[in-house]
Design a protein that fits this description.
7 helices, 34% strand, 285 residues, twelve-stranded mixed sheet, alpha+beta
């Protein structure tokens, strides 16, 4: 029984990796308004990893979380100390990731749907209609030029630098003749500012084994996940007797039932912390 419980949690917090390569990593400070009817602003750090084949964007907490959780997982597997995973786990502000392929700039939006750790993604081709303006200014160490566009129901102003020869940027943004150094919407809901960079000689792509589905199916599945975060593991839990759910987990102060409630609460907390998405829902839906 102890082995079965530990295996369940190892699946939930599993980490997959792929082949190593060289990358340029750019860090962006995100300032955003998580609740549309509030004036409170929040902050996060995102990373944009650029290789010869494409780029990978995500909340940088995901990478910190993965490396921290991996160490906790390895120790938990040896000691059975499940509580260690929760104590060391860091919570990202944004759970999704975005991969772009070069040179076609096909975008894949990736997220975990369900507590069984499976990655789902949908592909799309986003064409930005940029209006490049003559205005220039220096942001940090970079000489930048202004450009504007409309995307996701919002108007955006960007500052790009041709000194950084990548036609890419944070989130889904791309297509300017240089890396986007800063971009924000006119209402001040979201802003990204390039805050640093580094070389990664042994870069490991964070995600593999992605199940690609249509955007419509993805949105339906994700909406169902939000309504019932435990849906993907209910089958496993259904196979357990009530006394097993109420049994204290070895190495933990709580029962399996307590742990699942805690996971459900933390997942719901992430969902409920943001109701002001980058891309506004289409009025046609």
């Amino acid at each position: 029984m102890k082995k079965r419980i530990i295996t369940t949690f190892l699946i939930v917090f599993s980490l997959t990796i792929s082949a190593q390569e060289k990358a340029n990593r750019f860090f962006y400070e995100i300032t955003f308004k998580p609740k549309k009817d509030s004036t409170r602003m929040d902050r996060a750090i995102a990373s944009l990893d650029i290789t010869e084949k494409g780029s990978f964007y995500s909340d940088y907490t995901n990478e910190i979380k993965d490396s921290t959780n991996q160490a906790a997982l390895e120790k938990a597997a040896k000691t059975g100390d499940i509580d260690m995973i929760f104590k060391s786990s860091k919570k990202p502000k944004f759970t999704y990731s975005i991969a772009k392929t070069y040179p076609d700039m096909k975008i894949q939006f990736i997220d975990i749907i369900g507590l069984d750790g499976k990655f789902f993604g949908y592909e799309e081709q986003v064409k930005f209609s940029w209006h490049i303006l003559p205005e220039k200014k220096k942001i940090g160490a970079y000489n930048t030029q202004k450009a504007t566009t409309e995307f996701g129901g919002r108007k955006w102003v960007a500052w790009f630098s041709s000194e950084i020869p990548f036609q890419d940027g944070p989130y889904k943004f791309h297509g300017l003749p240089g890396l986007i150094v800063k971009i924000e919407d006119y209402e001040g809901n979201y802003s990204w500012l390039l805050s640093g960079n580094k070389k990664e000689d042994n870069y490991t792509s964070p995600i593999k084994d992605i199940k690609t589905i249509s955007k419509t199916k993805f949105e339906i599945a994700y909406a169902d996940f939000r309504k019932d975060p435990l849906s993907s593991v209910r089958g496993q839990l259904a196979g357990l007797k009530s006394e097993h759910l109420n049994m204290q987990i070895p190495g933990s102060k709580g029962t399996l039932g307590d742990m699942m409630k805690k996971i459900e609460k933390e997942t719901n907390d992430i969902f409920n912390s943001v109701d002001n998405p980058i891309e506004l829902p289409s009025k046609n839906k």
